[in-house]
Amino acid sequence: MLFTKTAALKLSLAALLLVGATASKAEAAGISWFKNLDKASEVANKTNQPMMIEFWADWCAACKVMEEDIYSDPKLIAAVNARVVPVRIHFDLQKDMVRRYNVPAIPYLVFTDSNGTELMHHRGTLDAGTLTALVKAFPTDVSHLNRLDLVLQENKNDFEGLVAMGRELRAAAFFESSNRYYGKAIKQDDAKKDPAKRELILLDMGLNFLELQEGRQATEIFERCLKEFPQSSNKPDFLLNLAQSYILSEQKVKARKSLISLIEGFPQSEASRKAEVLMKAL
After folding, report:
1. Which partner for 209 in 32, 159, 182, 217 could form a disulfide, CB atoms 3.0-4.6 Å apart?
2. How far apart (Å, rounded) are the C-alpha atoms in residues 148 and 146?
């Protein structure tokens, strides 16, 4: 059978309308929440997707705002249904889950790998745009995190597993979770006996704290780096990062002292050039 151009055009338009109608129905249906974490995890593991767990309750006014004004947003619905496995846990009726994730109040969101291990959390409400952006920022395939998670479930003190998990989470911008694993790794004998390994872990931990705008914790890390590794090739970076930590902590005198030490001690380094820029801003 031969089709005219007009007939072909009509078929194309019909196909587009069908796709649009299907998408509209999916949006109208809203977010496809699971109510059971184990069942959600089974689905997530088949596709290596992360999970988004919301803790809520009928009496929670903020939860109702989220339901009516946020979870009804078409762009958010599309992002959630396409990229994560959404789970809704009742705060009053599923206390085992509340204890598992240390939920202090609701609404409370937890993003996890496919096994249910926390990657990050947020307490309180979020607007639709922010939550949509957060969902889209998550990797749709967390298979590598899943594998590392299973290694650590077998042995929670596996040094290489802890370091690898910290590294992967940092690369995915899960800075707080990254430091949780690095913090466990730094306590292992492997880190205590090997200065090179310990130095790299501490450097990443300090950078994570800077990303989190945690000046005090970052200061402690980089002061420790300078004390433990005074001859390290990373010393210019230690001094620069320490100055940034002092700035976050509003300790400008100490920041200036650290920058001067860097500029005078390592004048040809890239860190020194960055230090000169920071000095002008102080």
Report:
1. 217
2. 6
As a whole number of angstroms, the distance between CA 256 and CA 278 comes to 9
Structural domain boundaries in the chain: 29-137, 156-281
Range list of H helices, the chain = 5-29, 37-47, 61-65, 74-83, 95-100, 128-137, 143-154, 159-171, 175-185, 189-193, 195-211, 215-228, 235-248, 252-265, 270-281
CATH for 156-281 is 1.25.40.10
Q: Which CATH class is domain 29-137?
A: alpha beta
Mention every residue, 6+ apart, whose C-beta is less than 8 A from residue 148.
161, 164, 165, 168
Query: Rounded CA gap, 195 and 232, in Å?
Result: 10
CA-CA-CA-CA torsion sign (199, 203, 209, 214): positive
- Please check the confidence at residue 16 and state whether its pLDDT lies above 80: no
Using DSSP's 3-state secondary structure scheme, residue 54 falls into strand
- End-to-end distance of the chain based on CA atoms, in angstroms? 77
The one-letter amino acid code at 213 reads: Q
